[in-house]
Amino acid sequence: MLVNTKEMLIKAQKEGYAVPAFNIHNLETIQVIVETANQLRSPVILAATPGTFSYAGRDYIQAIAEVAAKRYDTPIALHLDHHETLEEIKASLELGTKSVMIDASHHPFEENIKRVKEVADLAHTYGATVEAELGRLGGQEDDLVVDEADSFYTDPASAREFVERTGIDSLAVAIGTAHGLYKSEPKLDFDRLAKVREVVDVPLVLHGASGIPFEDVRRCIDLGACKVNIATELKIPFSDALRKFLVENPDASDPRKYMEPAKKAMKEAVIEKITMCKSDGTY
Ligand code: 13P
């Protein structure tokens, strides 16, 4: 059964590792992630953006994730990534989704609180857990594009009030990571993360982990990040392998054949990221 993220994140927080949240897009990407996570005995979060749902359909993604969760005995959550409207979140809650992110981080503090609390109150009646963002990540994730100038870091002084007044279950922090790849080496504000950890007791979430050096992600985990979001660094090996296969086999036309090298390349990236999160062998 698909689970919410409460227990898996609290266990990770206590035991000092992070649950990887991998962005999924279709049947194949879900298959690779759940099969690999189960082999490595890792919990896993399947993260789907509004763009993924417009492409594949909320009902299809929900149904595929449910089959995955029945097939394997390690915890699997389907999670709404960067959703901005109550209507879309409600549609997934009705379908049985148990983990949601409401991203109102582009609104001023009071408006952010108001929108997040509204979602948290609703989602909790469905037994679902809620993540929200304070501060704003730069970069691009599907249709969500944030200029560097519009991004800002999480203010530790407001973080506790934000968590208390909204009733959220996990908090996404902005400490210098961005969605997508980096133009120059990212400099993370580790002190800020430590300060937020001191004042907030809910699990902390690190978005934009693609392109962050392994040791920096590990340091964030040691400082208290217990959900790590990864999209770009799975999409790239999948697409590169697919492209290579089609270039080398210009007559290939069977998706069951040309998807295989792509899935294999993505699997290697999933293994690497699960190892980075230290979530292998935890279930
Ligand atoms: P990356 O594409 O940078 O890995 O970001 C993923 C993410 O944070 C999803 O919310």
Report on this model:
Helix 2 crosses helix 11 (255-277), helix 7 (156-166) packs across helix 8 and helix 10 packs antiparallel against helix 11 (255-277). The mean pLDDT is 96. Strands 1-2-3-4-5-8-10-11 form an eight-stranded parallel barrel, surrounded by eleven helices. Strands 7-6-9 form a three-stranded mixed sheet, with no helix packed on it. It starts with 5 loop residues before the first helix and ends in a 6-residue tail after the last helix. It contains eleven helices and eleven strands. It has 283 residues and is α/β, with parallel strands linked by helices. Bound molecules: 1,3-dihydroxyacetonephosphate. Residues 23, 47, 81-82, 141, 179-180, 207-210, 229-233 line the site of 1,3-dihydroxyacetonephosphate. The site of 1,3-dihydroxyacetonephosphate has 16 residues, from strand 3, strand 11 and helix 10.
Q: Which SSEs are present, and which pair or pack?
A:
Blueprint: H1 6-15, E1 19-23, H2 27-39, E2 44-48, H3 50-56, H4 58-71, E3 76-83, H5 86-95, E4 99-102, H6 109-125, E5 129-134, E6 138-141, E7 144-146, H7 156-166, E8 170-173, E9 178-179, H8 190-199, E10 204-206, H9 214-222, E11 225-230, H10 232-248, H11 255-277
Parallel strand pairs: 1-2, 1-11, 2-3, 3-4, 4-5, 5-8, 6-9, 8-10, 10-11
Antiparallel strand pairs: 6-7
The chain binds 1,3-dihydroxyacetonephosphate.
